[in-house]
Batch of 2 targets.
Target 1
Amino acid sequence: MSKPSAPGQEKRNNQRSVWSLVGLAIAMFGFAFALVPLYDVFCDITGINGKTADAPAASSMTIDTQRQVTVEFVAYINPGMEWTFEPEVRRIVVNPGQTQTINYAARNLTRHASIGQAVPSVTPGLGAQYFNKIECFCFNRQPLEAGESAQLPLVFYVDPELPEDIHTLTLAYTLYNAQPTATAQTQ
Amino acid sequence: MTDMLREQTEVEDTETKAHHEHHQSGLKRWLFTTNHKDIGSLYLMFSFAMFLVGGAMAMVIRAELFQPGLQLVEPNFFNQMTTVHGLIMVFGAVMPAFTGLANWMVPMMIGAPDMALPRMNNWSFWILPFAFSLLLASLFMEGGGPNFGWTFYAPLSTTFSPQSTGLFVFAIHIMGISSIMGAINVIVTIINLRAPGMTYMKMPLFVWTWLITAFLLIAVMPVLAGAVTMVLTDKYFGTSFFDAAGGGDPVMFQHIFWFFGHPEVYIMILPSFGIISAIIPAFSRKKLFGYSSMVYATASIAGLSFLVWAHHMFTTGMPVAAELFFMYCTMLISVPTGVKVFNWVATMWRGSLTFEVPMLFAIAFIVLFTIGGFSGLMLAITPADFQYHDTYFVVAHFHYVLVSGAIFSIMAAAYYWLPKWTGYMFDERLAKWHFWCSIVSVNILFFPMHFLGLAGMPRRIPDYALQFADINAVVSVGGFLFGLSQLIFLAVVIKCVRGGEKASAKPWDGAEGLEWTVASPAPHHTFSTPPKID
Amino acid sequence: MKNRQLIWGSLVAAMTLPVTAETETMRLNMTEGVTEVSQRVFDLHMTILYICVVIGIVVFGVMFWSIIHHRKSKGSVAASFHESTKVEILWTIIPFVILIVMAVPATNTLLAMEDTSESDITIQVTGSQWKWHYSYFDEDVEFYSLLATTSAQIANERDKRENYLLEVDRPLVLPVGQKVRFLITSQDVIHSWWVPDFAVKKDANPGFINEAWTRIDKPGIYRGQCAELCGKDHGFMPIVVIAKPQAEYDQWLQTTKVAQQQAYEEEQRLLAMEMSLDELMELGEQVYNTRCAMCHQVNGKGLPGAFPALAGQGLSIDSAKKLEHISIVVHGRSGTAMQAFGPQLSLKQLAAVITYERNAWGNSTGETVQAAEVQAVLNGEEL
């Protein structure tokens, strides 16, 4: 303050300032955690980290027959995941809007049942929001019995709104063990 | 009005008498003190001790890097040294030193009797030695101490980290609480306790820079707390903030961390700007050039610092639009920073300059910090950054701004205010040795790192390809010399505390500010009655 | 006096340690590289550097002039000016303009760099602790690329050879003149793939895929390093790219495909053969010391709190758990740093190293593991 204040007033001023600053600190701590959903929302809207939607999309109304886009498929198996997992085709050429189905082949190599979770990632990141999955095995955990094989389907289309400068989309799945056993932690 | 003032003064005098009757000495004095000068001294002594500890770790690093091959330490221990060296220097040396300076000087500079919250002030300090004991103890745990860099990226710091990570998180939380409490104290003190007539635009620039720094601290230390808590829960409680398997994203860690991290580096330099803005005018015998634009420039730098965090992340795979945004904002920060440098030079221009040790360090700061700023501007250029990122070019940049920048400003401040703190002039000859040894060795140590980075040497490696050997040897020698030079500083300070030529209230004839109106050493309580400001 | 002699003596001795066969002189500046992009990046770097140097000379020049001519000892009397809005505006606007001048070429270079479309070949680059894996997208060629420098050199037991720490057992081979696209990810922590001569540096993020591209103009050998702290051997996972003219590259690709196929067939042929315990132990020790000891230690004691011990405890001494042991080595362990070595080692190597772990350091199960058993686990067959 620029004028002298009685001691009581000064203490009240101090307390008011302190509580507002403590409030600010607490708000910023909350902000850090709010950054988590904020980041997800931002990435959903812009697709910047290559994450695709978690839920099925509706089919496309239009098909752009004048344009072709190359879609590539790769698979990674996370260490500890005892399955084989690979796409049946590596690359297809599609028209935006046209619905396509491709399969990933998986097989449980162990003597016990296990559950896999595939996590998708698309590059270029900005193309992710235009990669629309109508049905994807990545939406759910996939259980397989011991030695069981499966054809995991992906039904998708490339949104006709895909920016002109993107000609190739690469979809990568990383397969994780969705059922960590008791021994999966470090001893 | 006068009756009220007299009553207030009488009340204060009685209180002061009572206080002196209970004045402690020895260990109890330091443990329970609520006096801003005592607490300032505690912070400063603690920070210097931490500087030496962190410096010793740097010596281990440079000793291993003196030659190619692994001679002295295992790679895992080397990673612990680089990590803890960074943590100690950032949180244990630079930040507490600035807080110590704030504690000592801000109340006197605004004509206040003490900080607004003296008991919280005591707590703010004393939890620090506890936090750093935890951190240092973690080095002796099974699996070793934190080894993932001071930036602790996930998942290296979560799934792949040693068991000491929990202790590391706890220590960081405590350091954060200390900083936040200190920042609250500074803001409340400056807002509420200025002497009558001390308007905001009359405050010394050191007070301004600390006010702005304190707001930055309150805004971002909690974000660090959030990030470090998420690392804790990802590692021990099954969350997947940063784990793709659970729907998380390791790059998100970097966004959250650098949202704290970038303002943090401005937290570590803004008080420096305040110090230099006090010293240059004093030894130029000329008022600071462009006071108001210095205030606005500081505020702009602080504001802009929130918009640039992803320039630490250009290689993570961001879209072009984001890279461009962060490149432009980062380049922009050089404008207000340049204004400050020009204003300091304009202050010196046509002044009447003398070159006592505080001024030597301040001039060195201007040159060397600016060089650090230039490498920072180069790093801002995204396509070029792809070649600089995670190389020794970055290491050179931040050590120029933090060592020959922040640390030199702290030493300048120490020399400037030591007569006020101790009542004695320091040994000028010995101090000049400290200065010249430091400035020569710091450049031998850090300048060649620019070349190492440009030639392709990555950061955080304990061993390197043969072509990097000669320069690394030179750098290591520079490191050892710089480390040894700081022992001269220790000697100067100890000698000065013990005695010497008596210092007057204002030993530097060009100095300005309320602190020079009180005796040297400053009485335990100053400005119990507010001074008159014109 | 004695102390000083000791110090100087140590310094001299340290400088003459067996270090280098021949120390190359280091380049002092960024490389111009061998691609159009790397050249543009270099030019940008030099432009910014020159601008900074000029600004530095001007600003420091003014300051040092002041230090010389405005000193009190020379009789300088301080002027009283301490503000000038005109000057302040000038030295705000001029730097701003300089920044714009820098930003234009920077923006153009960046836009060119981030355009991965119309590539000719695609390489999948996967980082893991502490090596790289390369897979040629449209071909059936893939391999791991590990540091080739021996630990004896690193431990100063042997002289260090040329390309110390910058050599690998199997380099990435690429054609000159073609646009090469890289798909980059990681199996564990964040790594970063960097080749200075291409000006390509891109982080390898686990669970996410990044892309980068280059078009190499000159044949040659180009070396890079991992550029993101990834654990203890971050400094020991280099990148080596050999760029060959198109015809040579095609030939290399063909030869490699054939060799890979032949190796696989050879391995299958030898499945019926059994190795003796001694043969397995000899090979196993070698594999263990180069591929497992970095975490589990040569003495098998691991690192308490980080990597489990194999000596005297756990699966390696439990006869009932042999299958589980093979499974973990082959497939890795989720949520830990234990990788899947199935894709990284041959069946024979896997059989040998697991046998070694079950018999070394006093473990003495007496059991052998044969290549056929490993293959059965890899293929998920009943034993």
Target 2
Amino acid sequence: MKKEESKILDKLGKNPGFKVPENYFNDFNAKLLESLPEVKITEEVKPTMWVRVRPFIYMAAMFAGVWLMMNIFSIGKSSASSEQRAAQISAGVAVEKNADELINYGSVSDYDIMTYEDSVYMEMEEQKNEK
Amino acid sequence: MKRNNKLMAAREKYDEAQVIELLHKQDTCRSAFGKVIEHYSEQLYWHIRRMVIDHDDANDVLQNTFIKAWTNIDNFRGDAKLSTWLYKIAINESITFINKKKALNNISIDDDDSFLVNNLEADKYFDGDEAQIKLQKAIATLPDKQRLVFNMRYYEEMKYEDMSEILGTSVGALKASYHHALKKIETFFENND
């Protein structure tokens, strides 16, 4: 602060020479307070616990809903694809030449083939027993 | 010494956060505002007085400042400091008052505020010497914003950061403004020796 100032100001000091009447501030404060008009204050209402936690509960419910819907759709999707695969396999077996193509180039997993082989084996066993 | 102790005790009792809370309740707002007046009237008075120079004018402007603050108290939500808010009102009221006084005296709004110091020698609430009158004349030649910055820094020793909040100007610009004000005052003294 000091180094900012000039030599002239250093000589003059910081009292500008202004005065006030005696007891001015006490009188001013008292008179002013008496003369203030009426005002209407809008008191802030404190939010209830429910109002404060409501956004978090809504958000949690929304995420739970999204999660639930994703689960429902993924279950439906996987069961539908299993049926489609079973139909593919049946069709493929009906026409034997397509079976190789289906196995080689189609979207048939090892699990699907094993399931099919098991069912064929079971059929053969049943036929044996019948004989 | 006793008076200083009393003042210190009064200041210690003033809890701004509590006062702001009480200001927002219908049944306690008036008494809380009484505490605000008690706490800020002196510092705001001196701030206004250095701007308008005359005691009676400073008294009117101070009164207007508090009345404006009181009638708008519902809009004050405590986002800024109470002192910042009051200073802003006081500055606006001071500048509005000076402009009105200029208009009444047929002085252009672009002219400096030297007319305010013309009768300083005759003011019964002034006991400064020739050098002090000269300094007030030099300060009155500064543009309003520079005058504010000079008074707040030199007389009130306010931090630049606090001034920045009140005046809405960057600290760098305020430092530059104060430096320019000092140079102008020195030049005034050199030219009026």
